């Protein structure tokens, strides 16, 4: 798990400054109403961080916590398109730092505990799988922003 935490911390260092230099126009531009803007993607990552904090913490004391994230509903409800960019980037950074702290603080045996992420039926994953998948999820969405 320490490798995943280190990779998450590295992603934070690597991409926070890159996000901060994206122009406001580029950040807020929507190519279509159905697609997220570059600004809404860090918002999605804020939502993902919040859901994963819940999963990691609750898995330490609950049997198979059921925590789902309807990405479309979360992004829409929180209005990230109209959120101040600097605050959104800072929120993303702080929540992801906190996720690393949580992963480093929970008991090692918690990494094998299961969480249910299913919307329509059980989808059980270990905390260790979810932590690694979270890292992959972040990379996927950051690549969308920077087209690389």
Features:
single chain; 148 residues; mainly alpha; Four Helix Bundle (Hemerythrin (Met), subunit A); two-stranded antiparallel ribbon; 6 helices; 63% helix; 4% strand; globular
CATH superfamily: dinb family like domain
CATH architecture annotation: Up-down Bundle
Q: Give the termini separation.
A: 27 Å
> Quick one: how many beta strands?
2
Count of domains: 1
Number of helices: 6
The main sheet comes to: 2 strands, antiparallel
What fraction, in percent, of the residue positions are helical?
55-70%
Alpha carbon gyration radius: 15 Å
User: What's the CATH class label?
Assistant: Mainly Alpha
Question: What does the average pLDDT come to?
Answer: 94
Layout of secondary structure:
Layout: H1 2-20, H2 24-28, H3 40-59, H4 71-78, H5 85-105, E1 114-116, E2 124-126, H6 127-146
Antiparallel strand pairs: 1-2
Helix pairs in contact: 1-5, 1-6, 3-4, 3-5, 3-6
